[in-house]
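User: Run a structure prediction on this.
Assistant: Running it now.
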Amino acid sequence: MSGFDIAIDGPAGAGKSTIAKLVAKEKNMIYVDTGAMYRAMALYMLRNKVDLEDRDAIAGKCQGAEITIKYQDGVQCVFLNGENVNDLIRTEEVSIAASKTSAVPEVRKKLVSLQQELAITESVVMDGRDIGTKVLPNARLKIFLTASTKVRARRRFDELLEKGMKADLMEIEKDIKERDRMDMTRAESPLVQAPDSVLLDTSDMSIKEVADKIISLVDW
């Protein structure tokens, strides 16, 4: 018997992961960062120098990637073929690569299967691009987070600076616009708002305000 599932979708930089973690912690649920799983797959492709324009090559290569999620000291860690890659999957290069590799049906099929398995017996908060429409279509609560492009770019810029990484705000905004275009126009599971989801524009909301709003919608 499945638990209470919360599906959080939305474009890059809308704050999905941060919000999902807070909601999961508050409601004692398991947080599943699906985006990190796709990033790990993208990292695998980059490491193996796979042509990201060659969908057949990506489809074949993805079968060699074992991606799992484990919790260590309360922190979700993504493992790629046994290696903890948490600190390697948040670069802009990996972000762009993830949008390309995630559009390949074989990649999505492999990872969606794992994501659905995680939700079979546990109460989960899962965020991504197609959670409410494809991965957990029967989730008890569906949220679609969004924010203006400029706000999302600024958030990503500040995040990278906090980690001591170099960042170009204009380049990040350009990358986000391109990622939005790819995510919304891909043939396989494009980014769309599920009809039964709650739309939240976070442009003028604090992280706590967004989390509190979602928590208020949880009916258990």
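The chain has one domain: 6-217.
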